[in-house]
Each structure stands twice: as structure tokens, then as C-alpha cells.
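ARCHIVE CARD
SHELF: 3
SLOT: left
DATA:
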Amino acid sequence: MTVVPDFSRTLLKPLGAPSGKVETFIEVPFTVGERSIRPDGIIAVTRAGKTWGAIVEAKTGPNALEPDQMNAYLDLAREIGADAVLSLSNHFVTAASGYPIEVDRRKLRKVSLAHWSWVNVLTEAVVVREHRGVSDPEQAYVLGELIRYLSDPRSGAVAFDSMGPAWTKVRDGARARTIRRSEPEVDAVAARWDDLIRFLALELTKDLGRNVKQLLPKREAQPAARRSALCESLESTGVLYAELSVPDAAGALSIAADLFARQVSVSTAVEAPRDGRSKGRVSWLLRQLGDAPEGLRIEARVARTQSTLATTLGEAHAEPGALYPESDKEIRSFLIAMTTPMGLKRSAGRGSFIDSVLDTTKTFYADVLQALRAWKPPPPKMKKPSPEEESQVPADEAANRLPPPDIARPAPEESGAPTDV
């Protein structure tokens, strides 16, 4: 972080750190009262004579953050005037899950608390090096070594590799319609699902070089509300759901894992053009999906009705009329969906639930969403003057107008002098 300014700035700016000189220190001892505290690290950023500081605690592998330890660091931060306490571990934090553990919120009045997953740090390092570029060879080498280290399983900075011990019971219970939202296993799988979605967003961010984010409806903005909604969905329909926003994409990525039907579905909704008729709107979509998989499901959503017209992409290419509504109706939007069999295994790898979600989402984006372009209305056209308006142009103004290009100019008089063109 001290050697590669672009990398440190990317990580520290969201924490409120200024742009300045970065210094880092390892295992600095402090004494608070009669207690000796030795955090894993200190980050200091100095600018214009002022210093922003953060206390760092890091855990690797399966090691978990401890509430007593983090509360002690919050006390230390207040004692020494640090601005933030930062933790790193293999827990994936999302807007839905909040901080990984419970802490005394009263200690956050003057000190901010933040968390990074190791995969998040690895993702930002890859984005800086591969997509934004590091011109200095020494900086590029140091950042490359960090990426090589964190990518090695022996580093303890593991990727998302398991749905947790509750997965099998919830998976089978959803199939049999026997699970209840109040069961702790259902809550655990719901939490792990959001961790998987966050990991998926980081994977797409690393692949695309753009920040992919999870979208949450307002009613699920709070962690407890989000968890409750997922548990209710598991009990009633057996479905886990999420939505990701990709910058400049034609639509959001909607992801649904149906544990009852054992299918993973990834879809996007795009607005239909507002001009032309339904036939032209269908042609507009099919032209963009020329190389997409034939098994895609296409739905045409018709104005002023709840019904939809649906077919596969292959059938739509052969008979586009299957998507045409009645003559007095118009298509307002399209839904494009890809469905694949759901993996059943708890741990990552071939045949796993995790890999089926990751692979289906990435395939859908590569084969479908990245080729789609949202419809935009054409620019307004310049109005042409009518013959009546042309006849009302003043004579002196008409004389100053250039002749149209297709009207021949009179030939110049023959003389030895050059002719101006």
C-alpha cells in the first residue's frame, strides 16, 4: 500500500482517507489503562500536516473476528485519536449482512468501523493492475506479487468454497416443502447466499474492470429485513434471489436459484423501442441476439395486460410471429432468461451449487447481456421549410444563400487571369 499509490487510494478512499502519503506499521504495541494491546497493523495517511489513521486487524483461513478484540480496538482508536478500525477476513460483507460480528455500536460515535474480505482486496489489486494499469515497473511487480500470494490457497485468503453445514438440510427440505422460515438452518443458508452473491459481484468486477454491485429493494435495505425476506421466500417457494447492477449494461442481472425445481435462472429485462410497431420491436431484439444460445427463453410483455408472449430464441428466429401481440396492443419490454440445472453439492467444485450459480451468471453475461444495447430515441430532425415559407424569404437574404450543390455555376469568362474557386 505504501509502494502502489493507485492501489492504496482505491482501498482507502471509501473509508474517508485523504489522498496523501501512506505509511504502514506492523504489530504496534499500545497500553490502554492496564491492558496491553497489539493490533496487527496501523495505516496512516498524511496530507497538509494532518494525519488520518486506521487500526487494522486481520484473520486468515477459518479464523473468525472476536467481538471483545474488536471492541478493544474501538476503545484504542478513541484513545489515540485514530479515525477508523479496519478488519480483514474471509467473511463477505454486503449491504444486507452488515459488519461480520456484533460490536458495541456506542463506540462508533467518533470512530468508523470497516471490513474487507481478502477476496475483495485481491479483486481490487487485479482491477488496478489489469484494467487501470500501473505504469511504474516496480509498482507493477509489487502488486503482481501481492496478487500471486493472495491467489495461492496456502495464503489463507480463500475464495468462496462452501454453502455451509446447513445447506443439505435446507436444499432437501425445500424440495420436500418441509422447511420453516424460523429454523436456524434456513437463516444460515440465506446469509450464505448473500455471501455468494457478493463473491459473484467481486468475480465480475475482476473480469470486467468495472464495479459490479448488488441491488436491494428498499424494503430489504436493512440486514434483518433482507434475511427475513429470503427465509420467507425459501419457505413459500424454495427460491433464493438476487440482483446485480453492471455499469452501462442494458439491464440488471436477476439471479434465482429454485431449490424445489433444482434450477438456476439468470435473466434481464430490457425496455422495447418506443417507436414503430411490435413487429419492428421484435426484430430489434432478435438482431441483437443473433449469436446467443437458441435455448434462451424470450418473453414479450404487452402493455395494459398481465399476460406475456413467450418462446425460445430458436423458435423466435424461425417464427417471430409467436411474439407478436394482437394488432391493437404494443410490446413494452422483453425478458430474456437462461435456465440451467442446479448443482447440489455444498462445497465448490464440479457439480456444486456454487459453481452452477457462478457459471450460469457469467455465461449469460458473456453470451447475452454484453451484446445488448438499450434502445435510445433518435435525435430530433431539423424541420424543412415549406414552399410557402421559402417564398416569404426576403430577396436580399435569398441572394446571400449558397446555391445547392447540384446546381451548376456559370462558367467563368475566358481570360488569362486565374479564376477564383
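SLOT: right
DATA:
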Amino acid sequence: MSTQKNMETKTLIILSSLRKDSNTKLLTQKLFSGIDSETIDLLDFKISHYDYQGHYSETDQFLEVIEKVLLFETIVFATPVYWYSMSGLLKVFFDRLTDIVTTEKHIGRNLKGKNIFLVSVGTDLTLPEGFETPFRLTSDYLEMNFIETYYCPTKDLQDNLTNQNKFIKIIKSTNR
């Protein structure tokens, strides 16, 4: 696996809802409409659950997704809140990060310095306590920069999004 030396400056959104036309997708479209960004929908990829022996089917696409991630300086994890946590789809992706710190260390080292954002949507008025923890700690472990979270209750999706401009300014400042 090879990685390009010249990273793209635009933002990569990793969408992880279990529905194609989800509120999370709608939120990311609203937030990033004026930002040079690309979206990877994890529903479009076959990513196997983590295997301690590292035996994955030939159709497993985790490394393909990671190869794409390495091309960007700014990564946005976009997930709905499911039972006070990230979506199962994103959890499987996070579990597979184990591969890039064990058997594929050369890949994992290339994540160092990337800017990480979290975008989430849920039915509660505020983000559940501890929701950001896996994102922050994973970023710290991989020496990435966890910068900001944007949370939107579903009831606010059709209205003006609170603090949207502040979040967009922060994202844009990472894409210089």
C-alpha cells in the first residue's frame, strides 16, 4: 500500500449512518455546502469486524478506506447517536484501527497530525455525556488533533443550525 506525499487540503467526511438518506447525511450536507469536502459513506464499503488473527475476506475494504483517509489533512467523523454512542458501523471501523497499530503500523503512523472533527445528530437536546471520549482518546493515541464537535438535535435540523458559522470557520482554518 502506498500513500501520496501531497495530501489534499480539502476535508474528508466519513459518514456512518445506517440509512442512505439519514439526518446525519442531511446535517453534513448543510454544514459542508460551502467547504471543499469529499464524503465516504461507510455503507458503500464492506468492512469486516476486527479479527485477532487478522484473517479478513478478500472483499474486506478497510485498508481501501484508510488509504483514502491518508490523502486528507482534515477528517470528520459523522455519526448519529445510537444508544448514547457512535453508530455500530463506525464502531466496527474504529475497532479495525487496531490493525493499523499492530500489523500495519506503517499505515497508522501516517495518521499523525491529522485534524479530527466530530459531527453528530441525535434526539436528545445535548450530546450524551462521554460521547466524544472514544474520538478524543483515539485521536490522542494516534497523535491526531481532535479539534471540535458539532452536535445537532434532530428537532433543529430544518431550522438554522446553532453555532454553525463558528464550526465552519474552525473547519476552514484547518484547510489552509
